[in-house]
Every structure is written in structure tokens, then in C-alpha cells.
Design a protein that fits this description.
The protein has a domain of 47 residues. The chain has 4 helices and no strands. Helix 1 packs across helix 2. The longest helix has 16 residues. The protein is elongated, with a radius of gyration of 32 Å. It starts with 16 loop residues before the first helix and ends in a 6-residue tail after the last helix.
Length: 112
Amino acid sequence: MLDLPRSSQRFEGKPRDEDARLTKRILELVRERPRWGYRQICQLLRREGETLNMKKMHRLWKAAGLKVPQKRRKKRATGVSTNACHVQPASFMHDVWTWDFIQSSTGERSAF
């Protein structure tokens, strides 16, 4: 026993039954409110009568692998949809000028 290194003789804590019960309740609350973080869930648990501090709540939150999903931002439309090229028909001859470039590049070759 005397030749063993001290690093191999560390105390390993065992998870409590209370932690498993709290984790189960946390997961239930997260399913009901997916946009809430660990602080708001902790407040709900305290209102239910649980006694836990933020450090313990954060540890249980991370151990369960929970994260609040990032809110996706909507892309803002630029311009007015009434002026879109697929909505407006050509109003006069050669109004759609992009076709001229496509035709000249794919059609007949001109000598420059």
C-alpha cells in the first residue's frame, strides 16, 4: 500500500438519489418550456418547494446535456415584392436586358 501513488487514491463521490429525482423533474419542466434556461427552471423548482442553489442546478443542467436552443432570426425581405423580376412583365421591347447577354454568350459568336 505504501508504494501506490496518491493520485490513485482519490475520493469518488456517488450521485444521490435526490439528484436523479431532480434531474427527472428538470427534464419534465424543460419539455413544457423549451425556451427557458436553468435559472428560470430553478425558480419553478423553488416555488414547488425544492431546496437547491444555482450551483447545483447548473451542475444538474450540464450533466443532463441541456442547452437552450438559439432563437432563429427571420431574414428580412429587401425591396418591395411588387417590383420583383418574376412578378413584373416586360413593359416594352428590350426591357429584359439580361437575356441579351445570355443570347450573345450562348448563341452566335461575334468577332471582337
